[in-house]
Write a sequence for this structure.
């Protein structure tokens, strides 16, 4: 799941080297996505649509593994 979020985020931003995804383990993993300050708008999207779409893809990937996962986009 971590690799999926990294791939999506790096595809969206101008500074892919600044993409950092951290993951906590457990039955309900929590992923935190951090990107460069200039790229926050690209990851969040207008009205949060892009971030919500990424969360949907994460939920589907987690569900395939029999888990639940959440994604937080954090300020750098």
């Amino acid at each position: 799941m971590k690799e999926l979020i990294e791939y999506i985020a790096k595809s969206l931003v101008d500074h892919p080297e600044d993409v950092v995804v951290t993951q906590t383990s457990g039955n309900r993993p929590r992923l935190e996505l951090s990107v460069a300050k200039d790229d926050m708008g690209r990851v969040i999207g207008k009205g949060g649509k892009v971030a919500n779409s990424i969360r949907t893809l994460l939920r589907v990937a987690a569900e395939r593994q029999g888990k639940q996962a959440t994604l937080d986009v954090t300020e750098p």
User: Anything to note?
Assistant: Helices lie at 2-12, 40-44, 49-64. Residues 10 and 17 are 8 Å apart (CA to CA). The chain has three helices and three strands. The first strand starts at residue 20 and ends at 24.
